[in-house]
Design brief:
Layout lengths: L5 H9 L12 E5 L14 E10 L4 E5 L6 E4 L3 E3 L19
Antiparallel strand pairs: 1-2, 1-5, 2-3, 3-4
Length: about 100
């Protein structure tokens, strides 16, 4: 390590780690980086929603869904699932001519 000392390298590395705070009961989406069965740009790799069961030290999170039993994942593989309740099914949007 010629250009960086250990402290500088640690600081540089940690600025790219996203801090995510989850609580029990939160809804999350799981990023599956191993899915290579259907290659393509438009395939989503986010699965879920899952519910957070327990948060452990050092970023380990236990999640479950109705279809799966509880399992532990790295918190960096999760993303908050936000439910939009303000949109009604079959809602119409009126477009106005700008002229």
């Amino acid at each position: 390590m010629s250009a960086f000392t250990k402290k500088e390298l640690k600081k540089w590395h940690e600025k790219y780690i996203i801090q995510r705070d989850f609580k029990g009961g939160d809804l999350v989406l799981l990023f599956n980086s191993r899915l290579k069965l259907f290659p393509g740009k438009l395939r989503s790799r986010l699965f879920g929603p899952f519910q957070v069961l327990k948060v452990y030290l050092f970023g380990t999170i236990e999640i479950f869904s109705e279809k799966t039993r509880p399992f532990k994942v790295n918190g960096q593989r999760l993303k908050v699932y936000k439910v939009r309740e303000d949109i009604e099914m079959g809602a119409a949007l009126a477009l106005v001519d700008p002229t």
